[in-house]
Amino acid sequence: MKYFSLNNNSPKVSFQDAVIKGIAPDKGLYFPENIKKLPKFFFENMENYSNHEIAFELIKQFVGDEIPEKDLKKIIADTLNFDFPLIEIEDGIFSLELFHGPTMAFKDVGGRFMARCLSFFNKGNDNKITILVATSGDTGGAVASGFLGVKGVNVVILYPSGKVSNVQEKQLTTLGQNIKALEVDGTFDDCQKMVKIAFLDTEITNQMQLTSANSINVSRWLPQMFYFAFAYKQLKNKQKNVVFSIPSGNYGNICAGMMAKQLGLPIFHFIAATNANRVVPNYFETGIYEPMKSIQTISNAMDVGDPSNFIRIQKIYKNNFKALKKDLSSYSFTDYETREAMLKIYNSSNYIADPHGAVGYLGLKKYLKKQSDILGVFLETAHPVKFLDVVEPVINKTIELPPQIKAVINKTKEATAIQSYDDLKSFLLNK
Ligand SMILES: *Cc1c(COP(=O)(O)O)cnc(C)c1O
Fold first, then answer.
1. Would you state the pLDDT for residue 216?
2. DSSP 3-state helix, strand, coil percentages of the chain (rounded to 5)?
C-alpha cells in the first residue's frame, strides 16, 4: 500500500516509510492511496472470526506485502493480548471498555501495534530511531510502555507540566531504560507544536531518524479500527443499527472508526463527544472550522484546540460537509455536566465511568433524543483510576488500584523540565 501526504506536496511512500517518518516532508498527514471494501460476507459472518482474525482482515490491505502474513499475525496477537468487554449499563446503551491493556487507556492498542511494526522494520538496522511524542496524558504512557526495552529505539515524551493526572505522570516518568520524559512549561498544544518544529529542523533530522508516535502515525491510527469491529460482532445478532459515541481530542480514534466503516463495517452513525474544546461542535453549528487555544478541563486527554486528525476525516468524506453531517454529530459538554453524568451512571447503573467515557455517554444520550431504536456504544477510553482526583470526589468512593497502577504509583518521577523549543533541541542534540 502506498500513502500520500494530505498536503499533496510530497512523494508517495510505502507503509514502512510512513511508519518510520510519521509525517510527510510537507508536514501533511499520510493517507492510504486507496481503500478497498472487504466482502459483505466477512461482516455478515463476523461471529465466526476471532478478534485476531478480524484485526488481520481489517489491517492487511494497509500493510500490503511489507510485513509477511505470518509476522503480521504475530504482531496482531502480541498487540491484542487483552480483552475488550462490552458492558450494557442501560437498556441498549453499552460501554466498550478499551482500558484493559498495560497502561489502561485505548492508546495501548495503537502504541503496541506501532512499536511492533517499527521493531520489525528496524531489525538488522544499526541506526537508532528516536520517537518524539507529545502527550496530553495517555499517549505518553501507552507509547512508553509499548516501546520499553525495544532495541534500537529511544523514546522522548513531552508532556504539559501540571496538566496530566498523577497516575498518568507516573506512567510516563518512571520507566527508565530507553524512555525519557520532558516536562514542558506550557500546554499540550505547545508540546505538539515543538514536536512539529523538531520534525522540520534539519539540524536535528540530519543527525537522527525522528519519528512520531501520535495518532498522526498511520501505524498508531489504523489499528484503532479493530475494536469498533469487536463491538459490532457482539451486537450484530440484535438486528438494530449500531451507533458509536467517541470521546474525541485529536480525532484519531473516531477517524479510525470511520475507516472501518469505509471497509464496510455497518456503523449507522458516529458521535464526536467532547469537552469545552469545541472546535468540531462549533464547525457543525456554524460551518466554520476555526482552531482555537486549548482549554483545560477534567477530561484532559481531549484538551486539544487544533485536532490533528480532522483533516483525515475531511478526506474520508471528500470535503463534503453534507455527507459528513449524515454520518457524524458532534456535541460539547461542560465539566459540570461531565461530573453530573459520572454520578448518574454510578447511582443508577453502579458503573464507574472516567471523565472521558462520561462525555461519550453524554454524547450518546443527546443523540438518542432525536434518534431512538438504536444500539448505542460509547467508548470507555480509559480506566477511571487514571483520573482518581476527579472521579473519587464525584462518586464519593475510593477506587481500588489495579495491579498495572500499583506497579508505578510509588516510583520516583524522572523528568527534565523544559521551557522552549531551544531546550528541546539541545536535549535531543546532546543525547
Ligand atoms: C487520547 C484520548 C482521547 C482522545 O482520543 P483522540 O484519538 O485523540 O480523539 C480520549 N480519551 C482518552 C482517555 C484518551 O487518552
1. 85
2. 50, 15, 35
